[in-house]
Amino acid sequence: METKNKHNRRRFKVWHGIVAFLLLLFVLFHVTGSLKLKKQLKVLRAKGYPVTLEELESWYNTPAGVENSADVYMDAFSNYVGWDREALKALPVVGRAQLPARTEPLDDPNQQLMEQFLSDNQKTLTLLHKAAAIDHCRYPIGFIEESDMDAPWLENLRKCAQLLRLNVIIQCENKNPEKAMESIHSTLSLAKSSNVPILIHRLVHIAVRTLAYRDIEWILNRTQLTEEQLKRLSEWIKAPENDEGYKRALIAEQCLGLHFFQGHVREVSGRFVGGSEGRLSMIFLAFWRITGLNNRNATEYLKITQEYIDAMELSAYKRLQVYNSIHKDVDSGKRGGMLTRMLMPAFGRIMQIETRHLAHLRATQTALAVERYRLTEGRLPQSLDNLVPAYMEGIPTDPFDGQSLKYRIRETGFVVYSVGEDLTDEGGAERDGRARDAKGKPLPWDVTFIVER
């Protein structure tokens, strides 16, 4: 009997030892995961990046005492006069009607409709021009409360950019390039105002700037600008190689993602999941935190997003390669935990849009240089080499393939283009969303800037 009791006590001690060892491993797992996360946060703070919603709120701000163009923009949005759907069907740009080809004039009915729409929105136009003269903008958006992140004016940004485009078209038709240029400048300022450090705002920013590039293409096809006017347009669209706008959006998204890992379970569940799935997500998140997996997942999330942010310092071509590589690893499950894959936006796809925007920008800058050369020399340059160094410091590279932008002289003008996302040179084929091949797929296209006159 005594032997049996000793055996039981020995088994009891062994079981205690196993439990104690497992608890020790559990504690070490928790502690090391927490220390790694704290170390990562310290690195981010040393770089000046926000890691809490309160810090993010202060990070997106304007200097004290300066005029805020958002006040004027909000006034412009509130005065916008929209037409009903039936009336919009006959209106180009803001409606469904198609604009004429770049070398064809507007017909009288179209021009009259456009002028009527512009007349109805004259107050909005005036306010948009006024806001463009103000340097700083901070829309009434917050990050601490979910409700404060609502941005109902995003749709107004798009509508007002289209309104300005209508004005560019009409002013060109009326042979008033200065007035057309005023609206191009206001469009670029409107785009700048939308550069809130959130990815959806960044996409709107790109969409509005793209309309400005199309406006410049329209004005070059419709009017003959002076050297001074061409130089002004070039200066307006000048942008650094590494646009800080997208980098800031990434930093803000990183902070919002970090809040998912660190915020109160109930608040995070309602903010990021919500609805009928909220309660189930609360249980899951609580379990994830108890096990210590949350901190490790957060650390991995920060490492990946930091790689995205650091890649913004590379050339456009190289950073696109980095983004595609990271996206492939995360999407396949090689990197990042389950929550990271669920939480992380499609950074790779957004970088494709960013790269297309940069290609369009460089094509526009180059086309303006070509026009300056034509104005001075009385003929088109035989190659882009002729533009260096008098009109450009160097031939811009195509951000998609790392080669020089393409240039072709045509019978009625020229085209400057990038090969685009498919990396295939289509000879400067313009995008046409309506054109389809025999299988119903869109025809391949390049990122183009075309002048025909």
What can you tell me about this protein's structure?
- With 453 residues, the chain is mainly α.
- The chain has a domain at 1-50 and 254-345.
- It is 60% helix and 4% strand.
- It has 17 helices and 3 strands.
- It has helices at residues 2-46, 53-59, 69-78, 85-88, 108-120, 122-132, 154-173, 177-193, 199-222, 227-236, 244-262, 265-272, 278-290, 293-311, 316-332, 338-343, 347-377; strands at 406-410, 413-418, 447-452.
- Strands 1-2-3 form a 3-stranded antiparallel sheet.
- It is globular, with a radius of gyration of 28 Å.
- The termini are far apart.
- The model has no long low-confidence stretch (mean pLDDT 87).
Total number of strands: 3
The number of helical runs is 17
Main beta sheet: strand number and arrangement?
Answer: 3 strands, antiparallel
Radius of gyration: 28 Å
Summarize the amount of helix as a percent range: 55-70%
Mean pLDDT across residues? 87
Stretches where pLDDT is under 50 for at least 5 consecutive residues are none
Assembly state:
single chain
Widest β-sheet, arrangement of strands? 1-2-3
Gap between N and C termini: 109 Å
In short:
The chain is mainly α. 60% of the residues lie in helices and 4% in strands. The protein has 17 helices and three strands.
Compile the SSE list and pairings.
Elements: H1 2-46, H2 53-59, H3 69-78, H4 85-88, H5 108-120, H6 122-132, H7 154-173, H8 177-193, H9 199-222, H10 227-236, H11 244-262, H12 265-272, H13 278-290, H14 293-311, H15 316-332, H16 338-343, H17 347-377, E1 406-410, E2 413-418, E3 447-452
Antiparallel strand pairs: 1-2, 2-3
Helix pairs in contact: 1-14, 3-6, 5-7, 6-8, 7-8, 7-9, 8-9, 9-17, 10-17, 11-12, 11-14, 12-13, 14-15, 15-17
